[in-house]
Automatic annotation (TrEMBL):
It comes from Henriciella mobilis. This is Amidohydrolase. SUPFAM superfamilies: Metallo-dependent hydrolases. GO terms for molecular function: hydrolase activity. Belongs to the metallo-dependent hydrolases superfamily. Keywords: Hydrolase. InterPro entries: Amidohydro-rel, Metal_Hydrolase, Metallo-dep_Lactonases. Residues 23-334 form the Amidohydrolase-related domain.
Amino acid sequence: MFDNDDWLNQHREEVIDPDREIVDPHHHLWPKPNPAGIVYDLDDLWRDTEDGHKVTQTVFMECRAAYREDGPDHLKPVGETEFVAAAAARSAREADKATIAAIISHADLRLPISQLDEVLDAHLEAANGLFRGIRHSGPFDPHSEHFRIRPRSPEGLYRDPDFRRGVAHLGERGFTYDTWNYHHQILDFRDLAAAVQGTVMVLDHFGTPLGVGPYEGKRDSNFSKWKDDIAAVAAQPNVYAKLGGLAMPDNGFGWNERDTPPSSDEFVDAQAKYYHHAIECFGPERCMLESNFPVDRLSISYRTLWNGLKKITADYSEFEKAALFAGTARRVYRVSRPA
């Protein structure tokens, strides 16, 4: 699925600002062998992070990989944490490569608190000190048959009282809450954040502006509404924004269907307005630039992506760049600087 090197390598750029430190706060891993055919392990991650940019640390984001095959259903996601913790331990032994410095796992936040605590405690034990929070995402759309990445969440998850109780419990225990949803759900997420102000929440991928199916050809009108909704959710002080993930096929830019991949200039021309608006609303101290690899690898190379992000932020101050590329991620996910 992600073995598209030949396609990506048709376009190669010189690395911009190669000494800029990057903490990539959002990537996935899938083990080998994998019967589903989705494979992206530590060596694959390193192949991307070593491609010219100075990526020193990363944050793993749950992706339903390596779940336990046996045992209680609510504890099966702990298998993913065990798998990633082993990769993180290996990464820590390689001083010249990116280190997996934090893990965001999955739990069903609708569980009774006693069972939820059992899962959280199991993640803590399995992660060897790297567990930082939970992602239980909320994407729902009645037109998902048009999407490359199918949503799994029920309608109205953010309004579920049991779910809200679980999100609140994360904050009580000092853990973060990550989510991704679609652009038409951003205000629902805003309402969740307003109702559970004691939990640090991270909105992934700009709230995923869709551009396929019934959303195709409506980018300008959707962008206008998206701008207002992002400003509304940014008014909630417990919400942080991950800026990236717009190269997923369902965003509708169509790069994954071309004969050649995009350049960083094409990336900037198409997407810079999303970045500038989000940074204006949240402030750099509440924003972090992300790769969302390998999912965005379907459309753009790691080298080209980070070149584009450096071009988008070229006119920001050094303080602002430091926050966007590394500082905010370290603060939100409690990641110490490498020794």
